[in-house]
Amino acid sequence: MANQTIISQHPIPTKTWGKLKNALTGELLLPDSKGYDESRIIWNGMIDRKPACIIQCADVDDVVAAVNFGRKHEMLVAVKGGGHNAAGFAICDEGMVIDLSKMKGIEVDPTTQTAIAQPGVLWGEFDAATQEHGLAVTGGAVSTTGIAGLTLGGGVGWLMGKFGATCDNLLSAQLVTADGEVLQANPEENPDLFWAICGGGGNFGIVTCFKFQLHKLGPIIGGMVLHPMDKIEEMLKFFRSFTENAPDELTTYAFTMTSPDGMPMAGMALCYCGHDLEEGEKIIAPLRAFGPPLADMICPMPYLQQQSMLDATVPHGQFSYWKANQLDSLSDEAISTFKKQIPSVTSPRTMVLIEHHHGAINKVSPDATAFRQRKSPYDFIIISLWNQPDESDKHIKWTRNFFAAMKPFFSSGVYVNALHNDEGNDRVRAAYGDNYEKLRHIKQKYDPDNFFRWNNNIVP
Hints:
Blueprint: E1 4-7, E2 10-13, H1 14-23, E3 27-29, H2 36-39, E4 53-56, H3 60-72, E5 77-80, E6 96-99, E7 106-109, E8 114-117, H4 123-131, E9 135-136, H5 147-153, H6 160-163, E10 170-176, E11 182-185, H7 191-197, E12 206-213, E13 215-216, E14 220-228, H8 232-244, E15 250-258, E16 264-272, H9 277-289, E17 295-296, E18 299-301, H10 303-307, E19 319-327, H11 332-341, E20 351-356, H12 360-363, E21 378-386, H13 392-406, H14 425-432, H15 436-446
Parallel strand pairs: 4-6, 5-6
Antiparallel strand pairs: 1-2, 3-4, 7-8, 8-12, 9-13, 10-11, 10-12, 14-16, 14-17, 14-18, 15-16, 15-20, 19-21, 20-21
Helix pairs in contact: 8-11
């Protein structure tokens, strides 16, 4: 048994690993390989899993080889892009990790205002490449998030009011299916598959290339204002009225956090992406005047600065547990419940956000893409963060209690990228609503054996 690796009941001899290694342009990492431990570390420090192998793919042929090997040996397969998903689906125990993080090609065409990018690209890298040409697309609010996972789950961010969800700007994709076939998916080729990957996550294959429609974007007005926590009720009521008639160019989040010196804070962060920044200043003037705030960090800035503004609050390797759901409205009762729950927060690193969703992202029909969170005006997200492993139970319990208290105000929808890995199939169904059955039929067509199941799974 010394020269065999056990995966469930399937021993794989050393020479078989050798054949796989020789077939790859990239790297095969086994548990005794140099770089194995480093490669299995992802953003959420809670996730400490030990796969039987990690394949660091260099190209689409490596992905095909990995899929075929995993299928032949009946291995559980995880797919890693940016590794930023809080649920930790990028890594599995005992199975195979298909690691795309080395596939970082980006091509920007300023004439057609499009970009082609590989799945290992992070938003900071993508935005830097597109902003060289004064272009952008809706991306995640943290620059270390991967483009792949965010896009496949739908994709919300600072530009969503003006340009829609990330997946609304996906023009086409190349992907490897469960049987190792390389397909193109776009509105003309395999349109059912294209519809499904616009929000359906990694259920249908491994995307090895994305093509996005970009939009002109120069400097924006961004940043945040901070208030003492005892102003939370007044601030959330102001936030509600301020966002009711917000133009598409303005996206605003309300949040709570603890300052570096230990002071509980409430705040509002925004991004105005209109062409006329003077007009933007007038629109956001009431937000800056409210309070007045303890700190006002709002100013014109490059979009890249806005995109990295929150990076320091969510550093790599912290323990994290998320709970999220959309809100039908931000009622007085919801605000009162929020105010009652937040003082008991158990970790100074924890943040709670209410994101305003409106404009372009909500103008798309819910059945136009698999991503269907198009109606609710607000998204409620608890991002609990801590760095001591023995504190996990305490912080998870607080998160669940706060979430339960807010439940009476929830809509039926939840953003699939915000689901944790302990929430069950009912929550996955809630993420897709009436689109779930269509997704299930497409899953039956492209992955009938549920090979891609280590995800927020759509069961065929």
